[in-house]
Amino acid sequence: MNKDIQQTNTDAQFPHMNSVHNSPADDEIDLRELFSVIWQGKWLIIAITAVFAIGSVIFALSQPNTYKSQALLAPASEEQSAGLSGLASQFGGLASMAGINLGATGGADKTQMAIEVIKSRQFTSDFIQSHNILLDLMAADKWNMATDTLTYDAEIYDALNNKWVRDVRAPFKPEPSMQEAYKEFSKAMSINLAKNTGMVTISVEHVSPSIAKQWVDWLIEDINKVMKERDVAEAIRSSEFLNKQIALTNVADIRSILYKLIEEQAKTIMFAEVRDEYVFKTIDPAFAPEEKAGPKRALICVLGTMLGGMLAMMIVLIRHFVRKD
Questions:
Q1: Could you report the per-residue pLDDT of 186-195, keeping only the tens digit for each?
Q2: Where is the segment annotated Disordered (predicted)?
Q3: Judging by beta carbons within 10 Å of its beta carbon (0-12, 13-18, 19+), is residue 60 exposed, middle or buried?
Q4: Are 67 and 293 in contact (CB under 8 A)?
């Protein structure tokens, strides 16, 4: 009798001890219940998973093939900057006054700048407009291998009447804006710099392999042209400033230094004029790929089926516990 009373008092004082001892059994029961619920709803799970599997297959097959063309580039040598680099240690202050950044003439810096220019909105907008590729970028639907021609999405562009027919809300218009085109082009184009080798890879993915190749060629041509024009314009402005400074000073040593700086600017202009591959040299040119780069249909089907299975199990479990409560 006393033992029973003591046990009762102990249970009253330490109720958590009973809950600790019972928790493994409760967990085992819950786990069994979980598997039992899933087993009872197996047909619903199979049905939902099958629907998702079939849907993912249909979706994967409906996606057009895309092709990736790429080119391997190397930073162009910087012979024209050697003279300026040599003068930098002696006349850096004077060169800075003349608007010449002698410290940023290295190939790596110019390469990085060229990469950022390619990624910029201004360059992309100018590229799209100058080559008139807005239609191929925003409305291309399928590529005909036999004729090497594109067909366009009828819900976006009316090819018979040459008219954009997108149904969009303001501020968007039927004809895509340059901001929309920039976003779409950024998805299609990629540029990567290998830090260990300094090599640059430019690639474009499109439903037409020939268009992908053409765009890569145009990108290389345009970035070389843009960077050349920038450096030439800067050299001309620097030369004009230096000539003005020569006219304002009578000190022979300073005039000699200014003439050397003008000579280096003339070299920059000369190198720019005689070199088409100004900032990038093509090591491996772009080509029209024969094999598709996407879509990865098998992966789409697997992920779609897995998503359907997990969603189906969640529905079965939620429905069971809602009814239980």
A1: 999 999 999 8
A2: 1-20
A3: middle
A4: yes
pLDDT for residue 125:
96
Token readout for 223 is 């970035």
Closest by Cα among 60, 179, 77, 169 to 124: 179
Q: Give the model confidence (pLDDT) of 159-179 as tens digits.
A: 999 999 999 998 899 999 999
Residue type for position 224? N
**DSSP letter for each residue of 182-231:** HHHHHHHEEEEE-TTT--EEEEEEESSHHHHHHHHHHHHHHHHHHHHHHH
Tell me the two tokens of residue 163: 């008219």
Q: What element of type H or E holds 232?
A: helix 209-248
Cα angle: 70, vertex 72, 73; to 5 degrees: 130
- The rounded distance, in Å, linking the Cα atoms of 277 and 224 is 6
Distance CA 240, CA 262 (A): 9
pLDDT in tens, 12-52: 554 444 444 444 544 444 778 788 888 888 899 999 999 99
Q: Please state the pTM of the whole predicted model.
A: 0.74
| Cα distance from N-terminal residue to C-terminal residue, the chain | 41
CB atoms within 10 A of CB 56: 21
Euclidean distance between CA atoms 155 and 247, whole angstroms: 66
Whether the bond into 24 is cis, omega within 30 of 0 = no
Give the single-character DSSP code of 166. Answer: -
Q: How far apart are CA 297 and CA 62, in angstroms?
A: 10
Return the amino acid letter for 92: G
